[in-house]
Design goal:
By secondary structure, this protein is mainly beta. Helices cover 12% and strands 49% of the residues.
């Protein structure tokens, strides 16, 4: 496999994000963005999932939904009537990612949502990220909300060791915004030997690591297929994330791989979670909620419930 590094962004750009300042470089959406993303539809992609959990690999299903929305600047929620709230709205690209997999007798149901400004200042700092994890023992919900100089972080958990948490986190790059930024303008992905990144809310939940920014290394790699991989390495966490995407618009995400030590006690070992694309369609799925629309699940190769 032929792999080579792409260009580095200016060091000043990286240093601004490292310091968590209020301003940053402007990242413009690619010229083709509006014609594809503003047609009143969402992009749905299904993936074969192999998820590490409790020191073993599990087969499952992952789905990513990308869609543009008008978000309230103040409330950071989708506006019900954006046409009458011109001074309040901001366009975002929303990603909803879901995972379903079994651990023995019971199932995990996970959902992650990230909201990233379409262009503008420092979009890799997501406006909002929310994550939930539901399984038979209980449920956990966590959320990041961007404020002027920090993130508000809240977590509500069934488990005593987690409890209810509310704290401020320095305003750094968010891993969960990277997926959106790939679709907005992948040329703007930060590359650095040392940058502070807030890991995924999902990773924090499954690993039980302290949720805070960690120092990371980021780079772009080109495969012999000409597909591009964005790589994030966290030395302190002994974890790496690889997101593979197409080199041309709309920069569809083809696969991702996550390596870290999974399991507890003697069961803990280095395992590799992977998700590989199956099907992708562009559709107004919110209007496809009748029994006659069940056939669309077959088109996406989704299992029957």
């Amino acid at each position: 496999m032929v792999i080579r590094l792409l260009f580095f962004l200016p060091l000043l750009l990286i240093e601004r994000c490292r310091q968590g300042t209020l301003t940053g470089p402007v990242v413009n959406k690619v010229p083709e963005f509006d014609s594809y993303w503003n047609q009143g539809k969402a992009e749905i992609t299904t993936y074969d999932l192999y998820q590490a959990r409790y020191g073993e690999m599990r087969e499952g299903e992952a789905v990513i939904i990308f869609v543009t929305e008008e978000l309230s600047k103040e409330k950071q929620v989708k506006l019900d009537h954006p046409s009458i709230a011109e001074d309040q709205k901001i366009q975002v690209l929303k990603m909803n990612m879901t995972k379903k997999f079994n651990t023995g007798i019971y199932q995990y149901n996970m959902m992650l949502s990230s909201f990233v400004t379409v262009g503008g200042v420092a979009p890799w700092q997501a406006i909002k990220v929310a994550a939930s994890c539901l399984e038979w023992c209980g449920q956990v919900y966590s959320q990041l909300n961007l404020q002027n100089d920090h993130y508000d972080y809240t977590m509500h958990s069934y488990f005593e060791s987690d409890g209810d948490v509310h704290k401020h986190i320095n305003r750094y790059t968010t891993e969960d915004a990277i997926w959106n930024l790939i679709r907005i303008n992948p040329d703007s992905l930060l590359q650095s030997d040392s940058i502070m990144i807030i890991p995924s809310l999902w990773y924090a939940r499954l690993s039980h690591k302290e949720f805070k920014p960690y120092r990371a290394r980021t780079s772009k790699l080109i495969l012999d297929t000409l597909n591009v991989v964005y790589k994030i390495e966290y030395p302190e966490l002994n974890r790496s994330l690889y997101i593979e995407y197409e080199p041309t618009f709309p920069y569809s995400i083809l696969k991702w791989t996550e390596e870290y030590k999974d399991g507890f006690g003697d069961m803990a070992k280095m395992l590799v979670t992977t998700a590989t694309r199956k099907k992708q369609i562009m559709i107004d799925y919110w209007n496809k909620n009748h029994k006659i629309d069940d056939s669309l699940r077959l088109e996406l190769e989704l299992p029957k419930l």
